[in-house]
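Newbie here. two chains, one complex. Structure please?
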Amino acid sequence: MTAKTIATARKFKPLLFILLLCPALWMLYQAVFAQQLLGADPAKSLVDQSGLWAIKSILLALAMTPLRILTKQTFFIIFRRMTGLFAFFYALVHFLIYSILLLGLDLSQLGNELTQRPYIIVGFTALLLYVPLAITSTHGWQLRLKRNWVRLHKLVYVIGILAVIHMTWLKKLGLTTTWPYALALVILLGIRILYSMNNKRKAQHKKQHT
Amino acid sequence: MLILTHDVNAPTSSEITPESHYLNRRSFLKSAGIASASVVTGTSGLILPQSANALALPYAPIAERPDAPSYLKKKISSRKLASKNPTGETLTPYENVTTYNNFYEFGTDKSDPSANAGTIKVSPWNVKIDGLCNKPGTYSLEAWSMVVPWLGFPLADLIRRFQPKSNAKFVEFHTLLDPKQLPAQTGSALPWPYVEALRMDEAMHPLTIMAMGLYGRSLPDQNGAPLRLIVPWKYGFKSIKSIVRITFTDRAPVSTWMRLAPSEYGFFANVNPTVDHPRWTQASERRLPSSLFNQNRRKTLMFNGYGNEVAGLYKNMDLKRYF
């Protein structure tokens, strides 16, 4: 990555940060100043909004590598960590609003929900898997874990899949309403598979000719 | 489910339609010659009652829709409102009732119906009656009677006019099919038109209401204008909206949700806290409106609290099997 590329990326990073923060600020504004905008079921509206932004952010984070591959612009990688952390942030907010506001921190109710609503198990698993990724997202951890860092962070694919299953499972109409997200996920993961297959083939080709 | 539950000491069905609430006896279907549609105070869906001052109205008056057909306007301006809320529970505000509901013909979000309604033309409105009855035909809506908060009349009164034959065991209802008026019908979220059905004894039950208004005014488009069903002891999707066809039949019809997901939705769809939806529990509900810090959660009651009135319809039936 050239110094110029890094400088360009650094310039756009604060802009992306503000953009990704907007949904959270909007939710806060609605909750504090404009509850009528949240409708008849305000806590559920906040749970839905934060969950949707968690999904959107994780898809955006997963889009960074394909964008790099397709555009050959390496600076997308500079946005990847921040976008991924936003996804974790929205997922955490989603879980906290759900357990504090919707369940009123009633642990027995939480137990019921976990056993009786299987989609919650899926969502909760996705969040738990996300915790080590958020913790080890720093440069220091990256150096410490070396190759294992890459292995660990491949978990984000599993998390993305679980998140979309969670969302699809809880909708009355299922995929009929969530297919755009599922399709985006399939495309983003598909590009990676094709790219790595292509790389392997190239490597093999090279081997044969040396 | 966001459906009304009733107090244990809520009125029995006979109390729900007291003589004092018979405010207007009007013709409903002119060409059918229906002289007197009765008035029912019924509650369902998001409408939930409260202990009200016996003399004060249980809710503030709501302005009539400006485009209400003249015959409706006339009936409404001459109406008297019931001054008592018979169920004794807090009413969900009109604002919530009309902006937070499912009407997939306008979109799959609960805010879609109010955002997208306005394309449907509810006057004039024709209802086709066919199947196993002696007086089939196409009838025009002409007037109505009222209730608080749902305004309507027992479906039984309507059915009797068409003289169903003795082999008619079920009544099937169809929603309007017209993508110009119901824009989400251009998509394929559900197989259109929306179809629902009741067994004849359920349809004839006095709690089964044909509603044409709510909160003292005619139905907003997003709530199923001009004519919709209310079956207060069943889940909300049974209460089909904007009805254009009523058919009498001898075989159990397949409703829209049954066709879409037979393992998740049965014919009866009675509110039943002991039978879970395969993907979620149905043991408790949150009474709307909720607030950020009070979810208003309560246990769901068998038959939505109407057990005394309707349990007899399902005697000796395994409700786990016939869900």
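Moderator note: Residues 6 and 305 of chain B are 5 Å apart (CA to CA). The radius of gyration of chain B is 18 Å. Thread marked as resolved.
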